[in-house]
């Protein structure tokens, strides 16, 4: 039987790249792509009109049965072999209620459909490494441990959603992907949104003609992950037998410290390195002033990731990718095209996220 995929979150960045990767590897596969009503026009433009193997389905994960008509639901239950759940609210500033509705209740609605699919070979759920919240020390892949606290509602609701997925992995073949902070392609730098580390680039851009500051003193590491590594590793792990009932931290075992990354990004962006320290408490006070935060292009919530004292275990990832040609690119290599893409597209408002 040929693979039939159901993918949520289209036409988002990861879902689009994943679709392209799957089509390249499995050209005869069929795809059902769940699309919000307001994004249907954009989704339609990204799909060739004569592509009979791709089916766009208007729906919403926050609704029971995803808002899909019963006849279409019956078709999905009979055909789908691989279910990939990407749709979520990723905004660090999002209030709790919409985050819970999308990330938690939405995932529960997805699970209910997965349970009814008769040909199910794998359910791949995209979580995040930051379900660890404010946890310190080593965070292992094979357990989901509730941290003392979370830094934002995104982390909290993704933790609650992963709890629901973990609960079914003894009955359904599940692969859980926990990416770090996703950036553009490691070779072209291409991305569809400037958030996460791109806020750092916006801040540094404002200091192009001024002495550049570090934001506080920290020995924490930052876990930036190129999108092409996410796609290649995920496609392998969601199909190989090694990935069944496992959770993977998709981060580099050699992630740079925040200061190392900040220094390299500053050099690539402005050809200068930071020369003084702005205390984090001062930075938080400055970013608490809305118009300054907007002018700098940095939400205050980002600063909590500058002093993140967790160390992410990647032993399962390294073991199960051993013998493949999938390797995590060196930070010093992929950050150059990532920053270059930002420099060339910094004024593109369609990529702006704050």
From TrEMBL:
Gene3D superfamilies: NAD(P)-binding Rossmann-like Domain (3.40.50.720). Residues 7-233 form the Thioester reductase (TE) domain. InterPro entries: FAR (IPR026055), FAR_NAD-bd (IPR013120), NAD(P)-bd_dom_sf (IPR036291). This is Thioester reductase-like protein.
